[in-house]
Amino acid sequence: MNTTLAGKHAVVTGGGSGIGAATAKALLLAGARVTLMGRDAQRLEAQRDTLSAYGGVVACISADVGDESAVNKAFSAAATVAGAVDVLVNNAGQAQAAPFAQTELSLWQRMLDVNLTGVFLCTRAVLPSMLQRGYGRIVNVASTAGQIGYAYVAAYCAAKHGVIGLTRSLALEVATKGITVNAVCPGYTETELLRASLEQITAKTARSEQEARDVLVRHNPQRRFVAPDEVANAVLWLCMPGSESITGQSISVSGGEVT
Q: What InterPro entries is this protein classified in (predicted)?
């Protein structure tokens, strides 16, 4: 551990696995107090126990980021446990594929609720305190799906494009307030979301899992999937001293897929 972020309280939504878990570990090892948020309390507790082995302060609070009341209660509890939030990583997300003509309103709304409205609600919960203290780091984990389009995931792409628009707009609003707002945009990353995508491909086509992996990995010019730690490193950089001039950006972590 180091003390670069000592005294800072970081909240990571979707912190129970994948990119969220890797990001929480990176922030903890940089000296921050970390609160994990997500819907699955058991998974959060398991991740908290894993991270606690590194020392430092790790808390976990269960909440659905798309539920306004739950979000407000969760962030109030987080502030009580570990102090005002200095760093917010909006990582909670969900992806589901369907041809556009078969995309039901319920699927559309679910993708917006988790991937976009959740970012809005969590950010709104921490922003007043950040403005009052003149300091904050907000990092939204978007996706290359927010920078370009992919077939069969129109709802997900729309939500992630919305995250990037929100990022750019809010960054301008708070540019003189000591707060930065950025997005990192991973390509296909070795997480549960990737595994879910592979399962959808194999279930709906005649492809094997390996054939499905080959289809997706071709999006990355490096011909590999991104590792969660690589995304976490990008998030950490945006939270560290020396990144104060980086705001309103959508940084692609995709092996050159988006330039």
A: NAD(P)-bd_dom_sf, Sc_DH/Rdtase_CS, SDR, SDR_fam
Q: What is the pTM of this model?
A: 0.94
Q: How far is 161 from 169, CA to CA, in rounded Å?
A: 13
Burial 216-245 (b: 16+ CB within 10 A, else e): eeebbeeeebbbbebbbebbbbbbeeeeee
Q: What is the pLDDT of residues 26-83, one digit of tens each?
A: 999 999 999 999 999 999 999 999 999 999 999 999 999 999 999 999 999 999 999 9
Out of 54, 150, 156, 188, the active site residue is 156
Q: Which domain holds residue 202?
A: 191-225
Q: Are residues 45 and 105 in the same domain?
A: yes
Q: Are residues 216 and 234 in the same domain?
A: no
Helix, strand, coil percent content, the chain, rounded in steps of 5: 50, 15, 35
| Residue 188 falls in the annotated catalytic set | no
